[in-house]
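Figure-free illustration: sequence to structure, shown twice.
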Amino acid sequence: MAKYRKLSRTAAQRKALLRGQVTALLANGKIVTTEAKAKEIRKIAEGLIALGVKEKDNFETVKVTAKVARKDKDGKRVKEVVDGKKVTVYDEVEKEIKKDLPSRLHARRQMLKVLYTVKTPVEGSKKTKEVDMVAKIFDEIAPKYAGRNGGYTRIVKIGQRKGDAAMEVLLELV
């Protein structure tokens, strides 16, 4: 018995396709694809979510002092003249950051191997913002499924595609 479906693609094409589909599923919550692809995507996505559920609390908070540029009411940096040169004024600020424990760091790196970066449009402007998918798994998706042992996705058959009669399905997070 084969370990996985080849999906009529070379290894590099298959890996890129599955990475893209898994990223889209976790970013949007659902995707429409063929049944064979959905079964492969489901395996990968469930593994990532299970990893996130297991490691979601493995971090420690650390207080760090950081220098941050002082800004005026317009959001521009405040400059001061020192020895004839304009120099930016900095304030020291204490911040609390999450520091991953080794097991969570390893899980993060395993997820980064699979997931692509996602860019979402910012409302009211033409700019896009990068979404950290690993942080989304740890902070949003994993807490939702903390009390659940597997079965994080659902496959719903939609019907056959008109062009080639391939069975299309809706793959969604439960």
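We now fold a second protein in the same way, so the two outputs can be compared directly.
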Amino acid sequence: MLTRKFNLLLFDMQAEYIDVLFGKRGFKVPSKVKGSDGHVYVVEEQIGSGGNAVVCQCTDERDGMIYAIKFLAHTRDVNRLPRFQLETRLIEKLTHARHDHLIKFMASGEAQSHYFDPKRRQNVPFTMPFFVMERATMTLRSFLASSPGPVAQEIYNAQFRGLVGALELLHEHAIHRDIKPENILVVGERWAISDFGLCEPVEDVAEKDLTRAGEIPGPRFWLSPEANNRSVGLQESISAASDVFQLAAVFWWVVTRRHPSGILTREDWTGAERLYGPISTGLQHSLSRRYQGAKQFSEAVIAAIDDLVQA
């Protein structure tokens, strides 16, 4: 048994690797990994990183299809692995629901990685869990930054319809807590909600909230009022209504090309009158005046869009 483990380690250390960067630390990951679907994925250039992970482009060796592969790189915090495992289970479960506006899962697995420890002057091996998902063209933030003028109403109408439906489906399983333009990906001609790393499950009682004491879950500049209140020490729960606020904030930004800061009035809105009501209601700071969940928000937005299409 010890010989077998030594041989596997020797094989991994002699395999071809590519360099990835997480924070200030560089890692080596195998240039090929095998997923839970039995496919071999060729790992290519790094295309992003976040609080827990690095993302690379990869190619399915079998058919040449291009995907993204997300590796857990934050290994020192004991909460990071359970959170990554939860994200992997959730994105796989959501993919089975087949919604076009949720990023799709392909496979998962583990890769043997290593980094160089300058104090010990040697390579330190460790295991990096990963999952493979759709490869996006860009983030919604990048999409708007590259668009010289306003987004056409017929484009955002279709995307808003899809995104509110995606959030409604997501809320059957979890609260996202991290909706922002960087976590809405442009895949071809559709916008898809992604990055479920901060999700809090609502369905499976076996799951638990992995938020650390004092941690403020949510995106900087796009925090819901509840998350902002938590940041100043108030005991407030982040709920489905918090996700509604974040998505409504993104919608406001898409239409007006301005962040919905401060006290908003009808004069600040540059889109169709019919859409102002649902989006402004979604942006209410008071929970009692805001939609309590994605279902109410979805119904209101879709009804407004239907009226605009029929007008």
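Summary for the second example: Confidence is low (pLDDT under 50) at residues 1-14.
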